[in-house]
Amino acid sequence: MTVRAMAGEIHEGSVPAYYREVYEAIHCRTHEKVQFEVFQRLLHKTELSKPVIGQIVEHVECTDGYLNKLALYKALALIALAQQGKQPSPKLLENYIQELPKPYLGEPRDLSSLRMQPPQDDVLTVSESLDKLLSRDSVQVELIPEKKGLFLKHVEYQVISQRYKISVYRRYSDFDVFHEVLLQRFAYRIVPALPPKRMLKGVLTISEREFIEGRRRALGRFINLVARHPFFSEDELVKTFLTFSGTDVQTKLRDAYKKTGDEFMTNRIATQAKEYLPADIQAQFSTSRELIRNIHNSFFKLRDRAEKMAERSKENATDLLLFGKELSNLGSDASSIPAFASSQSSWGALRQSLKSLSVEFAVLSDKAAQQGRREEDDVVERLNLFLDLLQSYRDLCERHEKGVLHEHQRALHKYGMMKRQMMSATVQPKEPASVEQLESRIVQVYNVLHSKCANYGPQAVVLKLCVYLAFLRWDLESFAILDFVHFS
C-alpha cells in the first residue's frame, strides 16, 4: 500500500462526530488502532465496487496490519466521496478538508460487530471440511486376548494409527494419563471424556466381557476424536501416545507436557482473545449451551432407541436359529411310525420338508445377525461418537465456569488474608479501607470475567455442530437404508 500526502491534513478536531463514533466502534480494545481485516469488512459493508474499494485502500496508510486513527478518518472521507459518485482521490479530498463529508455506514453501535468477528483463516476458526478432518487419521483399538500382570491382571489394547503406520500397546491407565495431560495442556478446548475404568456399582445387566468390549469401543471413539482434532492432531502429546513404543509411555507423556506447557501460556492470540468476543457473548453462550443440552438429550434418546433396535435384530437372529434347530430336530427324528398308520401317513415326507426348511431359517438367522451388527457398528456407534462430542462441549462449559470461579475465589482468599494481617499490625486506619476497596474491586473484576472470559470458546459450538450434523445425516441415512434392506 502507498501513502500519498495531500496539501491539507486531516486533524482529529476537524472531523465530524460520526467519524469518532465509527472509530470508537471498531478500534482494538488493547491499543488505539484498527485492524486492517476489520477495515476490509467495513469497506465491504459500503457495497462499493471492487475497483473503487481498491482505490480507497491505495490511498490509506496501513502499518503492520493496522490503521491509525487519522488513517481511518481519511478512509471514511474517501468512502463518503465514493458514495457520492465522485473519484476517491487525495487531490479531490483537499477541497473538503474544512467540512469532511459523512459516509453512510449505519449506526456506529451496529459496526462494533465488525470488530468482534475473527479474521478469516484465524486460529479461532476451523476452515477444514469434515472430509479433511476424517482423513487426518483413523485409529483402531483392538483388545489383546490375554490379560497381563503377575498379581493384578489388566487388559491391554493394541492401538494402530493409519497416519503413522505403527502399532503400539496401551493399558487403560495409559489412556487415563493421556487424558489428564490433554486437559492440562488444552484446558479451553473440547477434550473427549474417557469411559469408566470399572463397571459401575449396581449395574448387573451386562457381563464383564460386554463391559470390556463397550470400553474398547469408547476408547476407540476417544482416540479418533483426538487424532482428528485440527489442533490436537498436530501436537506432540498425540504423536507420542500413538507412536512411542517404550516401556513407560506415561512418563514420556508427562515429560512432553512439561516441555510445551499450557497452550494458552504461549499461544500468540491468548492476550488478544477478548478482541474476538461479540458484545452479547453472555447471551450467545447461554443460547449455545441450551442448544447443546437439547440436542444431547434428543440424540441420547435416539441412541437408546437405536440400541434397542440393534438388540432386537440380534435377538431375532437367535430366535430364528433356534426355530430352525427345532425344525431340524423334528426332521431328524428317527422314531418309527406305528404300523396301523404307516400306510396312510405323510409324516415321512413332512419330516424331510421340515429338515430342508431348517436350512432356510439358518440363512435367515445369519442375515438377521448381520443386520444387528450393521445397526450396531454403522448406526449406534456413530451416534455414540456424536454424543461423545456433544458431551465434551458440555464438559468444556462446566470446566470454564469452575476454573474461573476457583481462580477468583483464591484471589479473594489471598487478599482476605492480607486484610487480616494489616488489621493485626495496627497500621493506619486508611490502609484497611484501601484493602476494602481492593477487595471490592476484585469482586467487580470477577463478575466481569465470569460473564465474559468464562464463556469464551463455546461460541464456536454451533459452527462445529453444523459440520458434525452433516456427518450425522449420513448416519440417519444409513439407518434408513439398513431398515429398507431388512424389510425388503
List the helices and strands and how they pair.
Layout: H1 17-26, E1 34-35, H2 36-46, H3 50-58, E2 66-67, H4 69-83, H5 90-93, H6 108-116, H7 130-135, E3 139-143, E4 156-161, E5 166-171, H8 172-185, H9 208-227, H10 236-243, H11 249-260, H12 263-266, H13 281-331, H14 339-342, H15 347-424, H16 430-451, H17 461-487
Antiparallel strand pairs: 1-2, 3-4, 4-5
Helix pairs in contact: 1-6, 3-4, 8-11, 9-15, 10-11, 13-15, 15-16, 15-17
Q: How many H/I helical runs?
A: 17
The CATH first-level class of the largest domain comes to: Mainly Alpha
Question: What's the shape?
Answer: elongated
How helix-rich are the residues, as a percent range? 55-70%
Parts with pLDDT < 50 across at least 5 consecutive residues: 1-7, 451-463, 481-488
Kindly, what is the distance between the CA atoms of the first and last residues, rounded to a whole number of angstroms? 67 Å
Question: Radius of gyration from the CA trace?
Answer: 34 Å
The CATH architecture of the largest domain can be given as Up-down Bundle
Helix and strand content put the structural class at mainly alpha
- Return the CATH topology of the largest domain: Substrate Binding Domain Of Dnak, Chain:A, Domain 2
Strand count: 5
Beta-strand portion reads: under 5%
SSE topology string: HEHHEHHHHEEEHHHHHHHHHH
Largest sheet: 3 strands, antiparallel
Overall mean pLDDT stands at: 78
As for the number of domains, it is 3
Lateral strand order in the biggest sheet = 3-4-5
What does it look like?
- By secondary structure, the chain is mainly α.
- It is built from 17 helices and 5 strands.
- The chain has a 3-stranded antiparallel beta sheet. A two-stranded antiparallel sheet has the order 1-2.
- Strand 4 and strand 5 form a beta hairpin.
- Helix 10 packs antiparallel against helix 11, helix 13 runs antiparallel to helix 15 and helix 15 runs antiparallel to helix 17.
- The longest helix has about 80 residues.
- It is elongated, with a radius of gyration of 34 Å.
- It is found in: Membrane.
- Keywords: Membrane, Protein transport, Transport.
